Amino acid sequence: MQFPEELKYTEDHEWIRIEGDLATVGITDHAQHELGDIVYVDVNTIGDSLAKNEIFGSVEAVKTVSDLFLPISGEVLEINPALDAAPELVNSDPYGEGWMIRLKVSDPGELEHLMSADEYKQFVGA
To answer: Where are the N6-lipoyllysine modifications (predicted)?
Structure first.
């Protein structure tokens, strides 16, 4: 399983990549393995300002639906348009083409409460 060092991770198995005051969010390699084949990604929060840990959407796999939680507070600016036609990108490339949303960060200090790659590895028992 992959755990890119430049990302931060949550206990809900989301990852976040910070670039200035913008962030990209998706689910981890571990999460997509646990869920199985992803068939639909539902995000209806574009333009919304959400608080850390608020639900920003859901991901549907063959056997289950799982809520997606925002790692830090911010405004949802963009949803990955490729996921409409190809939700399986979350399985094949969770840290690249399978990203879910981009947001404008409202409280960068919240990043301090997220896990590093090593901490997340320990958390999932990898």
So the answer is: 63
Which of 25, 3, 2, 1 lies closest to 111 in space, CA to CA? 25
The enclosing domain of 84 has a CATH number of 2.40.50.100
Q: How confident is the model at residue 76 (pLDDT cuts 50, 70, 90)?
A: very high
The tokens describing 117, both together, are 């790659």
Q: Residue 103 is part of which domain span? A: 8-107
Of 67, 69, 3, nearest to 41 by C-alpha is 67
pLDDT at 79 over 90: yes
- Report in angstroms the alpha-carbon separations of 125 from 11, 103, 114: 12, 29, 17
CB-side exposure of 61: number of CA atoms within 13 Å?
Answer: 15
Phi-psi region of 118 (alpha: psi -120 to 50; beta: other; left: phi over 0): alpha
Domain assignment present for 30: yes
